[in-house]
Amino acid sequence: MSRDCPVSSADAVVLDAVTRSYGDVTAVGPVDLTVPSGEFLVLVGASGCGKSTLLRLIAGFEQPTRGTVRAAGVAPVPGRGAGLVFQQPRLFPWKTVGGNIALALRYAGQPATPARVDELLAQVGLDDVAHRRTWQISGGQQQRVAIARALAVDNPLLLLDEPFAALDALTRERLQADLRRVSAASGRTCVFVTHSVDEAVYLGSRVVVLTPRPGRIALDLPIGLPRTGVSDDELRGSPEFAALRAEVGQAIRERVTS
Ligand SMILES: Nc1ncnc2c1ncn2[C@@H]1O[C@H](COP(=O)(O)OP(=O)(O)OP(=O)(O)O)[C@@H](O)[C@H]1O
Prior knowledge:
9 strands, 258 residues, 24% strand
């Protein structure tokens, strides 16, 4: 990656006693959470525990009922300061693949040259697709484009809500590997939501397990696995990987059955 994002030494995200309620239902909280710059934080937990709600609070799409959310030291503004990737790629079908990336660059006030577009697509393993329509590429390729679009803007923060959930197992593993590589190279702070324990341990430098509703922190686990210089097979086959996966899986099961 040739245009790495400037990484501030400040904490990227700070949640202070955050609660989010919908009417009488408390979906999340209270949650205290500090995400240092450059961390890859994965939020994992059973369905409905409030993972997406937390992500929306960090993105500024929602306001906390109580407590405060800060991203790069200020209250988050929707569409500013964070790249977003959702379960569905949400590309514009009337534009080419390259057109989708160029639009994001222009929106951010950055030069949208074909070379820059190609560079971003190459980062996520896509060559020779800039001229194609989005419906002429596979679902996995579309999700790669969505990640490239999020990387296009020099945001120090990337928020990803189950981006690989709709993909087949092999494509999912490939995209996980690419995201792990790209995020390590870029130094961006990532907050990633998933149901998958395996995905959480593979991707995260830290995994936070949430309790069933209201979502609170049940386990906050640093993942000390190497982020570069080791093959995927070695990593996934290591006893350390298995032990971390077991610990996270147990924390989720304990909370769901208790
Ligand atoms: N806008 C809303 N209005 C009312 N209730 C909501 C709203 N958004 C979320 N909730 C409720 O808050 C709780 C947490 O939802 P959220 O989508 O954050 O969970 P999640 O962990 O991301 O779930 P999943 O893994 O199934 O996507 C759920 O009980 C949900 O029904």
